[in-house]
Amino acid sequence: MSAVTALAAVMVPAPRPPVDDGAVGVLPQLFVPEACQWLSTTAGRVATDGYSWMQAVHWVAGSGLYQPRRHRSTGIRAFNATTLHIAQLLAELSPCFPGVIYLQRRTGLCERTVEYHLAALRETGLLVYISKGTRARGKSATASEFARMIPPEFDQALGIRTKLRDDAAPAYTRVMTGVADAGRELMAKLGKKASRKKRRPRKASSKAPVKGVRKAASGASGTAVSGGSRCTPMQVGTSSSTTAGATTSPPENKLASGEATSPTPKKPNTPTGGPRKLNTIGRRYQLGRELTQELDWLRGCSVPRIAWVARDVADAGWTVADVRGWLHMRGEAGRVRRGSGLLAVLLAGAEKILDTPEKRASAIEQWRGAQEASRRHRIHQVRARNERFEGDWTAPASHTVRRQVEAAFDQVRETATGGRHQHQDHVADDPAAELELSEQALADLRATAAGELMGGETTLITSLEPDMAVRIFGADLVRRAKRLASGARSTNMTYGRR
Length: 498
Description:
The protein is mainly alpha-helical and about 500 residues long. It contains 21 helices and five strands.
């Protein structure tokens, strides 16, 4: 026997029984510490395809050289069918970029169990990290990327020869060049296992088979169930005695006409009476949910709490329209700190005051009438505002200047209509004499207009007629206002303060 054959016989024992805590010792060379579970620090070689990698996985599973309980107290006890199933799923991925959620969906396992099996594959050198996934707060989680590896113990046990295609390449890029004669038979067996698809392990049934003899309800002992005779598709055995009583088959004429009915009619699976009728609690929750959606000051409140607050009116058969009609009569607060508390105060005794459907309908009509009146008032306000701002004239921002301009307009109207300040034979050329404005008022108006021009505001001057603006403010201020107004429409000039 050659040295390679002897080494393969020692390192590849026959399939072993389930491993207990005190089972056969583990070769320390097969366990890979956490620091060596990266592609840059691994001692194995990258598997060229999923088939060759599954050969190594089946070799590790059948060798019995891995016992995780020796190195840590948690996790799986040893390689099992679930580990092989997860490895087969990883062999189908290219690149090997699985997520824990993906493996949960494919295997039906919980997150912790999937992580235990992945840890077992890493500790045996079959998987190494290329990049580790992250779970940062406020960011989406990323999955880890693995590289499928063949541990060096597998090559040593089967006498596989490897070499580097490029001397400058890393050691994990070694490729297989041959296999010893003693390891060819084992390699063929591992190839058959790798080609077979490993199905998802089924859970053990909680129903135990019937054993022994069962006694009837009367106390008499019955015969044992025979294993060969079955009378129903559910694999129920026949017995010499039964507690169901004697049953007779219907006559053939009724069977032919279809009039025979089952002695125990089945209930329909779907209700035929329409939607399910809510009980008391359901009506409370329905009203609470509708109130949180209809009332703005109840947005964000807990539906169960609102349902508890409105339990009395809900039990009385109120709808959300009835509640809104009552709140209109009761009066709502403008500022709400705690919506559930305010609702509890407003609904106190409501079901006793509006105790009939007619009273609640009247409250609803009043509320809807108020809503319609409010809508019309808002429309009127919008129209008035649009008509006010659609004109060419805009009132000055300063209240003092606005009063002075209105006074000037009033005097102009009196002069135009032949008022008391109108001179019948002569109209003075001086604007102060025509408008009956004092020198101080004109000086204040011109100073205010000049100050607004310094800030880029031309409303006071441009709001008047050109001739009137020249007589009041002077040609210089009017010319400056026109320049600023024309420059405001240009993209080369900006107004404002620094």
